[in-house]
Write a structure and sequence with these properties.
Layout lengths: L10 E5 L5 H10 L3 E6 L3 H11 L3 E3 L2 H7 L4 E4 L6 H10 L3 E4 L7 H14 L3 E3 L7 H11 L6 E9 L10 H4 L1 H4 L3 H4 L1 H12 L2 E9 L10 E8 L4 E7 L6 E8 L2 E6 L6 E6 L11 E6 L5 H13 L9 H20 L3 E2 L7 H4 L7
Parallel strand pairs: 1-2, 1-4, 2-3, 4-5, 5-6, 7-10
Antiparallel strand pairs: 7-11, 8-9, 8-15, 9-10, 11-12, 12-13, 13-14
Helix pairs in contact: 1-11, 4-5, 5-12, 10-12
The structure holds nicotinamide-adenine-dinucleotide.
Amino acid sequence: MTPRPRPKRPRAGIVGTGGISQLHLDGHRAAGADVVAICDADPGTLAERAEAWNVPAAYEDAARMFREAELDVVSIATPVSTHHDLVRAAAAAGVHVLCEKPIALDLDQARSMIVACERAGVVLQIGHQLRSDGAVAHARRLVDAGTIGEVSYVRLRQAHDWGGADAVRPSFATRATGGGGTLLDNGCHLMDLARYFAGDVDEVFARVATRRWPIELEDTAHVSLRFASGALGAIEASWTATGWEEGFWIYGTRGSLEWTNRHQEPVLRHAFRDSPGTTWDGTDVATVAYAGERAHTRQIRAFHAAVRDEGENPCTGEDGLEAVRLVLAAYDSASRGRPLRLGEESTDLAHAFEGIVTP
Ligand SMILES: NC(=O)c1ccc[n+]([C@@H]2O[C@H](COP(=O)([O-])OP(=O)(O)OC[C@H]3O[C@@H](n4cnc5c(N)ncnc54)[C@H](O)[C@@H]3O)[C@@H](O)[C@H]2O)c1
């Protein structure tokens, strides 16, 4: 009997081999792809990674990699200031793209990336991996099923301290490369989750501050949200925590959900009240333990499934654009010192930043 031909393994590339790239390598390999080429503008980093990862082709220039490496898919894992040009170059080469967050520095750039990928017929997924996290996915199912009633309040937090390093990593520390501080870097994930859990936002009121690091960007940010549904929300983003915390708290008219990575317990708490009682102890609590692969790997598996047309893209270019729109509106609100209705906001970072004074 003639053996059935094996399905072709996708050929994957990675542009940017810095901090986050290892998770892209692991994710592509877990999804059954061969990582056949990597690219980094820094020759030292590139050589180290090529050897450590045993990748056959290493390029300092992404355009050349797209010409020569015959890629099916690519991860763009470079600073946000480079995403626009690199995603457009990938689309022009007919390569499906998983682009790290935030999608871009402004909405025009984001739109041009979306259009380029649509015209080329390639998938554009944005790396808001929390959507693929087990707790987030389960919480979203409970919210959609009406298990906690109408959402009334969403609190979202992401905070860290650069792993105890004595400086902010250079690609994040300047407006030229990072675009914004913690509100853009961490806040874009949280804005995405806010939309994912509670729908459209119609007003934002933000404050930003630079308290710890000697940088031109904010290291501390707080945003109050009002959703179109009437629900409220709060976003807390900080580079001044001690340790790493991310979490969400969702209150609804019939119960609440909460999750944090703080205590290293992979558990989503669902509190509700079927029993009488007036104290917190008197509530009924269901915990959902989830296990398995980390969110980054799950999102890369989902990306490959979307490329094969066997699954939905969990975070489209439009989702990435909407997250950046909310971040820009928040900067603009902080800059003007007042709440801002969506639609009033500046659409590029330079304008949104105009009134913000940092040391
Ligand atoms: N989703 C997440 O959890 C998560 C976490 C960290 C970072 N990120 C995002 O990933 C991206 C990269 O972050 P990082 O922490 O890896 O940054 P990094 O500074 O550690 O690494 C970026 C790498 O890109 C290279 N580079 C820069 N411009 C390039 C170009 N034009 N062509 C090729 N290489 C280039 C740099 O030399 C560097 O090695 C950013 O958009 C960041 O926001 C996402």
